[in-house]
């Protein structure tokens, strides 16, 4: 993947926002339709494509104007700048996937103070005053993947062995990433003997995650377990991950959160032992509908709207490969 300059990224994002204003969103009785901005964490992360497709369909049903804006790679400062621009334009609502940091909290509070309804999906900022969050219970997801790892290690007779473990995450300040790690560590504590030797941050970037993973297992082949807090490095075929492929075939055990076609292919090849998936499409469609109903009718949604978890293991892998479609964004 080739990284674009910040200026080019901003121009592309603004162009996308303009192009994604659909022709069918015409005013009723001369009134302007609602304008809702969706901000995924990054345009370069295909995990958000399902949310985009589902939100567009729902926007068509609801007769609202949808704008899809984000940095190409996750950049918290650029995301704050984009929200500031949306505030200046006076959009009706914003749904964003964010890191829970002070700058984001302040800009969300600013939007809410100016009458713009703000919700979060996927990545939450609980202290920001946002209207609601829609997504998985990230602590429960961490518990689930930790319990799955315990089962894998017990089946292999490794539950009593001390196992050097690496955790790959996006950002340590991301609330949802930290909750997944917390759940994972709680589920495995006292059940298996994991020695967490490294927690690596990939800056929520697919390209960097692939490079870091290949470099890490090349330099540290003795690591025995890897927990992927998200599916960043799984968007490429196994041939593009030769060091990871070798590590897995020599007995390395990997589990992760995020479930999509390319990740399932890696699991089918034995490079990943267990995956937990999240319903990104529902985050897009249901999140948009809840926000629109609040703006139009004053219907206050729950502060947390939980979407379900999906498990991928040997028993259902073939069925899931039939259900999930490739994104064709190599």
Helix and strand topology:
Elements: H1 6-19, E1 35-39, H2 49-62, E2 65-68, H3 76-89, E3 93-96, H4 102-113, E4 117-121, E5 133-135, H5 138-155, E6 162-169, H6 175-188, E7 193-201, H7 206-219, E8 225-228, H8 242-249, E9 253-257, H9 261-268, E10 274-278, H10 280-297, E11 304-306, E12 309-312, H11 317-323
Parallel strand pairs: 1-2, 1-3, 3-4, 4-5, 5-11, 6-7, 6-8, 8-9, 9-10
Antiparallel strand pairs: 10-12
Describe this structure in words.
The chain contains 11 helices and 12 strands. The chain has helices at 6-19, 49-62, 76-89, 102-113, 138-155, 175-188, 206-219, 242-249, 261-268, 280-297, 317-323; strands spanning 35-39, 65-68, 93-96, 117-121, 133-135, 162-169, 193-201, 225-228, 253-257, 274-278, 304-306, 309-312. The strands form 2 sheets. It has a 6-stranded parallel β-sheet, with helices on both faces. A 6-stranded mixed β-sheet has the order 7-6-8-9-10-12, with helices on both faces. Helix 8 (242-249) links the parallel strand 8 and strand 9. Helix 9 (261-268) runs antiparallel to helix 11. The protein is elongated, with a radius of gyration of 20 Å. The termini are close together.
